[in-house]
Design goal:
This protein is an all-alpha fold. The chain folds into 2 domains: about 130 residues, no CATH class; about 130 residues, Four Helix Bundle (Hemerythrin (Met), subunit A), CATH 1.20.120. The protein has 8 helices and no strands. The longest helix is centred in the middle third of the chain and has 51 residues. It starts with a helix and ends in a 5-residue tail after the last helix. Keywords: Membrane, Transmembrane, Transmembrane helix.
Length: about 300
């Protein structure tokens, strides 16, 4: 019986959402495509963290990621279901009006064909909404069973762990040092690329855009975003460098680095309103050799002085 239900649901999705000659854009029409991608990301991160960091702290981190993913996906799914129910009510009312208008004479052949197409389109939209509403419960159960079950297993393993704190700190030291190294590399790239892209965006806006209130506000927002990203990257780099000298605890610098990355990427997306995507990609690539040169000149000697014996 379960196989028949899955077969019916799969056939409905394939026949109504995926055409015979489909493209990548058709994936956006399938219900909860973004939610499934989000689920894969959370599941992968929650699995990789305890695999790479086989300590109680790593298991708790995986539990936090899995639980956060389950909560976010549940809220997103419920929100989608509520919006779809609102759309369904409106479309059903619209379909009733179309049926009433179709019965109203006189109708010529062209007008009748047009109204018939409108009725068919409305019925298709209603069917799509019903499938989306049916899938809402499935996605909620799926997220709860997979991410919730993974989180429960990780927290159980963390609670029943028998290693001492000294053993866990020894296991954590190498992964934490690698994480701090990665954070310093990424922060260094933001320190180099943010001023370059901000200057290019400002010059392009001044030379090609007509001065106006919205343009000036957008330009100011982009420059301010890159400036704040630069300051936050400098703080993240400093925290990572200082903590690497003593006891490597990357949580505070990693959180700060994540906020920096979010602001930096958001500002990059804003700069697309001024710079063409191709030019922005070229700028990001051109910053790589500049970043490597500056890092060899300044950062590597500093690291050798501060961390003797560390590569």
């Amino acid at each position: 019986m379960a196989s028949n239900a899955f077969e019916t649901l799969g056939l409905a999705i394939r026949s109504h959402f995926i055409p015979a000659h489909w493209t990548v854009e058709n994936l956006q029409q399938i219900p909860f495509t973004g939610t499934l991608v989000m689920w894969m990301l959370f599941f992968a991160i929650a699995t990789i963290i305890p695999m790479k960091l086989r300590t109680t702290r790593g298991q708790f981190m995986g539990f936090i990621v899995a639980t956060a993913g389950a909560i976010i996906i549940s809220f997103s799914t419920v929100s989608t279901g509520l919006k779809t129910k609102e759309h369904l009510t409106y479309r059903q009312t619209h379909l009733e009006r179309l049926h009433e208008a179709f019965k109203t004479p006189p109708l010529n052949a062209e007008e009748a064909a047009l109204r018939r197409e409108q009725i068919n389109a409305a019925e298709t939209d209603i069917f799509h909404d019903k499938i989306t509403i049916d899938l809402t419960g499935f996605m909620l159960s799926f997220a709860a069973m997979t991410l919730g079950g993974l989180g429960a297993g990780l927290v159980t393993a963390a609670v029943t762990a028998t290693r001492s704190r000294e053993e866990e700190e020894q296991l954590e030291r190498l992964p934490f040092m690698k994480l701090l190294d990665l954070l310093r590399y990424l922060s260094s790239y933001v320190l180099v690329s943010a001023p370059v892209i901000a200057l290019a965006t400002w010059l392009t806006s001044r030379l090609t855009c007509t001065p106006s209130g919205p343009v000036d506000s957008m330009r100011s927002a982009i420059v301010a975003g890159f400036a704040i990203s630069w300051v936050m990257a400098a703080v993240a780099y400093s925290l990572a460098y200082i903590l690497a000298q003593n006891k490597p605890l990357p949580f505070v610098p990693v959180i700060f680095g994540a906020l920096t990355a979010a602001l930096y990427l958001m500002t990059l997306s804003l700069s697309l309103s001024v710079l063409a995507p191709g030019w922005l990609l070229v700028l990001c690539l051109l910053c790589l050799p500049l970043y490597a040169r500056i890092r060899r000149r300044f950062y590597s000697p500093l690291r050798r002085i501060g961390q003797p014996g560390h590569r």
